[in-house]
Design goal:
single chain; binds adenosine monophosphate; alpha/beta
């Protein structure tokens, strides 16, 4: 189906054509006509599926048709988990709305309140915001929600993971009851469904996380290695492979800084972003990475949320994240827009419990490759795919929590910190037919991870 059949008007169609989009992605083809009819939607869709345009295009279409009663007040509100994503969504609004006179603003924490307040006084049509700062501004009466017609919850699962549930529900309580609601989430977990039940009544549910259509094609593999050999292994891989660009995920901000110096000692230039760096520096580094001026970017999970590069060829997990969905999010940074991508994880014995959860989530083992000279002394067992943990694994880092806007750390720190209780196959089973550690043939496994 061409864009022209979706019900969008000329200025929007022209903007989309100028961006080089030839046809809507599957989620756009299905959801945009429904959104234009005013339906409430709950969509399971990954980053990279074209979900941003799925909600931005109908918002632009609908807002370009009317005018607020009390001019200058926002008519659409988009909640996002991080400031990087808020800025990214705002950029998309500018691009798709370049032939329209609608104004948008990104509102997020960690920066001065005044410019945001002034922009709200000057008047905006679309507010894209992280929940904490938005709630602060509402409490200060700097923003009014009485003209909001459309609410979007973008990456709802991430917002819940980051502990924003209270801010979200408080904000929603203050919105006009008569409004359209669009919820997007990589996964429709129980918590997301509960949020949806309370906020998105009579919604049409759409899922785009099936095998095949429009999903990224990512070649995933892992290398088992001792924890203290990871930086040497990474340097070795970088030197051997001469990678054009890689995004390297790490759990802690301290670890990110340390890795930059370790790579530097081996003659490899890299940069890092994490919650300890100022917003201005993070934005500059991201822009340099996108422009290709930085080859290796080390990032904690949340700091990388706004990274949106169509041709990013490689993602490296220096540590394995928890929860498992975070792994899926991370590797979803590559293999976008039809391109193929590669995701490599460096897995030490400490990562084993997270590996179990990830492989269980994927429904298959990740291909293992051995790198000569880096064989681990502490072997990483093969995980059990139908394994049920008695307790949740411990999340590796506080960095994601501290990087949430507006001091959310107290609320977020209530997550489970009980000791993990994992089972594994016996070491003997490492030589079983299930084991793929000596194999370099990743084609034996499904081509992408969205087959759960
Ligand atoms: P998203 O899932 O919204 O993060 O979008 C992922 C990437 O796909 C972004 O870089 C968009 O610019 C791009 N994109 C979105 N829709 C289309 C489309 N219909 N055709 C080509 N690229 C698209």
């Amino acid at each position: 189906m061409p864009f022209s059949k979706l019900g969008l008007s000329e200025p929007i169609l022209n903007a989309v054509t100028e961006l080089g989009y030839t046809a809507p992605t599957p989620i756009q083809a299905e959801a945009i006509p429904l959104a234009l009819k005013g339906k409430n939607l709950i969509a399971a869709a990954q980053t990279g599926s074209g979900k941003t345009a799925t909600f931005v295009l109908p918002i632009l279409e609908m807002l370009s048709k009317g005018e607020t009663q009390k001019k200058k007040r926002a008519r659409a509100l988009i909640l996002t988990p991080t400031r990087e994503l808020a800025l990214q969504v705002c950029k998309s609004i500018e691009a798709y709305g370049k032939h329209l006179a609608l104004k948008s603003i990104a509102i997020y924490g960690g920066v001065d309140y005044e410019p945001q307040k002034q922009a709200l006084i000057d008047g905006v049509d679309i507010v894209v915001a992280t929940p904490g700062r938005l709630r602060d501004l509402y409490t200060q009466r700097a923003i009014h929600f009485d003209e909001i017609e459309i609410l979007v919850l973008d990456e709802a699962d991430r917002m819940l993971d980051m502990g924003f549930i209270e801010d979200i529900t408080k904000i929603i309580d203050t919105l006009p009851e008569q409004r359209q609601n669009l919820l997007f989430s990589a996964t429709l977990s129980r918590q997301v469904r509960e949020l949806a039940k309370d906020t998105v009544a009579n919604a049409i549910q759409l899922s785009f996380n099936k095998e095949g259509e429009g999903k990224p094609n990512i070649d995933q593999w892992l290398i088992t290695v001792d924890k203290d050999k990871k930086s040497a292994l990474l340097s070795h891989l970088i030197n051997e492979n001469n990678w054009q660009q890689a995004l390297i995920f790490i759990e802690t901000k301290h670890g990110a800084g340390k890795l930059v110096s370790q790579l530097e000692k081996r003659g490899i230039e890299s940069e890092c972003i994490h919650s300890g760096r100022t917003q201005a520096i993070r934005e500059k580094i991201l822009a340099d990475f996108k422009a290709g001026n930085i080859k290796y970017l080390i990032s904690t999970g949340v700091s990388a949320r706004g990274i949106d590069i169509d041709v990013l060829p490689l993602v490296i997990n220096y540590d394995l994240p928890f929860p498992a969905d975070e792994y899926v999010h991370r590797i979803g940074r590559t293999g976008r827009a039809g391109a193929s991508g590669e995701a490599i994880s460096l897995v030490s014995r400490d990562d084993f419990k997270n590996l179990c959860m990830i492989e269980r989530r994927l429904g298959h083992l990740i291909t293992r490759k051995a790198i000569e000279g880096f064989e681990p002394s502490k072997e990483v067992p093969i995980s059990v795919l139908n394994f049920e943990p008695k307790n949740k694994p411990v999340r590796g880092s506080n960095d994601e929590k501290s990087s949430a806007p507006s001091g959310k750390s107290k609320r977020e720190s209530s997550s489970s910190r009980t000791k993990p209780n994992f089972e594994s196959r016996s070491k003997k089973s490492d030589t079983s037919s299930n084991r793929s550690s000596k194999s370099s043939d990743s084609k034996k496994l499904p081509p992408n991870p969205w087959n759960v």
